[in-house]
Amino acid sequence: MGAGIEKSRLEAEELLAHTLEVNRLNLYLNPDRPLTKAELNRYRPLIKKRKSGQPLQYITGKTSFMGISLKIDDRALVPRPETEEMTEEILTRFRHRSGLKVLDLGTGSGAIAIALAKFLVAPRVTAVDKSDSALKLAEENVSENGVSGAVEFRQSDWFSAVDDQYNIIVSNPPYVASGEIEELSPEVREHEPLEALDGGEDGMREIRRILEEVPGYLTEDGAFFLEISYNQGERVKDLVSNTDFTRVKLIKDTGEKDRILFGQRRVKDVKNGSSC
Ligand code: GLN
């Protein structure tokens, strides 16, 4: 039962709701209604796709990130709860500052950029990705969420097409060590874009590239948030100690694993409303 899928009942309900174009909870309003033949014909192929390992979100074409509805497909990673935690962290520190310039490196579906555009006060967000197809998806999501005026897109291999300075730079780069890709679940390994996951031999190839350049693109008191793998905390901290960050902190996820590197170039005068 369940084809080895952990939340099989919930997921089957999600797929049924998607077939019937209703909310999952609406299924319970009329739980005994049999499906029509036409409905069954639409439902069965979805179940088959899920059994073959496709992520639920790619089949329904939608996901939710911090309460925001996003289109999703294999042009980008399905946004993870850890990335929501990183975005929350940014909001906790910067929710009340107005007009901040934000750079999202490797935006994928646009999840972080859109959440920050919605929840910060009048920010100007630049979202870059080296993948043209991911950028198209992100643009669709930005326009569906009504934040086109706050988010500008650019195709860029990290900083290659970036020339400004930002108050906040955030990134969820590929950080899985090549040798650990095999250990990921088949949903992830076989269906999500490898270039968004594979961080080279030690998982830190892209992190190193970002860290080398990031200080030059931050404003004087700029803050940097980087999602990392559970086992990279100390190594990333060591790397950062060679750059001109004044403040560096590792922040744990709800699973108590090092997950976010926070760096700040200079702590601002407290009277001015320090950001931390
Ligand atoms: N946390 C993701 C996973 O384990 C990896 C995300 C990433 O490499 N940025 O699937």
Radius of gyration: 20 Å
Architecture (CATH level 2) name of the largest domain? 3-Layer(aba) Sandwich
Distance between the termini: 49 Å
Count of individual beta strands: 9
Q: List each distinct ligand once.
A: glutamine
SSE ordering: HHHEEHEHEHEEHHEHEE
Instruction: Please estimate the helix content.
Output: 25-40%
CATH superfamily of the largest domain: Vaccinia Virus protein VP39
For the record, the CATH class of the largest domain is: Alpha Beta
Query: Within the largest sheet, what's the order of strands?
Result: 5-4-3-6-7-9-8
Features:
276 residues, alpha/beta, Rossmann fold, 2 domains, 9 strands, 19% strand
Put the structure in a nutshell.
It contains nine helices and nine strands.
Describe this structure in words.
- This protein folds into 2 domains: 8-52, no CATH class; 65-275, 3-Layer(aba) Sandwich (Rossmann fold), CATH 3.40.50.150.
- β1 (62-65) and β2 form a beta hairpin.
- With 276 residues, it is an alpha/beta fold.
- Helices cover 33% and strands 19% of the residues.
- α4 packs parallel to α5 (111-119).
- It has helices spanning 8-20, 37-51, 56-60, 81-94, 111-119, 132-144, 186-191, 205-213, 233-240, and strands at residues 62-65, 68-71, 101-105, 124-129, 151-155, 166-171, 218-227, 247-252, 258-264.
- The mean pLDDT is 94.
- The chain is globular and about 65 Å long.
- The longest helix is centred in the first third of the chain and has 15 residues, at 37-51.
- Glutamine is lined by residues 80, 82, 172-176, 184, 188, 197.
